[in-house]
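Lab notes, practical 5.
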Amino acid sequence: MTLDANTNRATENMMNTFLVDFAFCPCGELTAIQPTKPVIPDTNPQPYGSVEGSIVVACTKCKRVYRFDTGYLKSFPLPMGIGPDNPQAPMSVFRVPIECDDLNCSAQIVVHIMLRSSTTAAELEDVQMSWTTSEMFCPSGGHRFQWPPYRH
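Output from the prediction step:
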């Protein structure tokens, strides 16, 4: 049996395509979160790599940091998937822990953001300083999550 070049190319493209779960920012921007976990019949599927319930996401467009219910993640194909799960992918999901800067609070949240895989630590820090957390409540005490850190 022989396959023509077009059939091989189509098969190769399908093999290099990955399903990825995305969160939707209220501004309309999509943020990749994680590879889609295959659904196994007769099980209660859980989002890959995250806890049941909600995650915290930073939008690269409007800079908003918001909570997103993992039950509403939508899967879309990406040709190379995302890093760090695929090291060759041009984009990666960074999971950035940040601490609440409120006095006497040491609570921490993990923020998911999709950036170029080649993003440096300094570039990531610059991006973090532009985040707006006004909609976030601290998981420890319920006060507004204070970010970026107070600068003297």
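Observations recorded by the TA: Residues 5-15 form the longest helix (11 residues). The longest strand covers residues 91-99.
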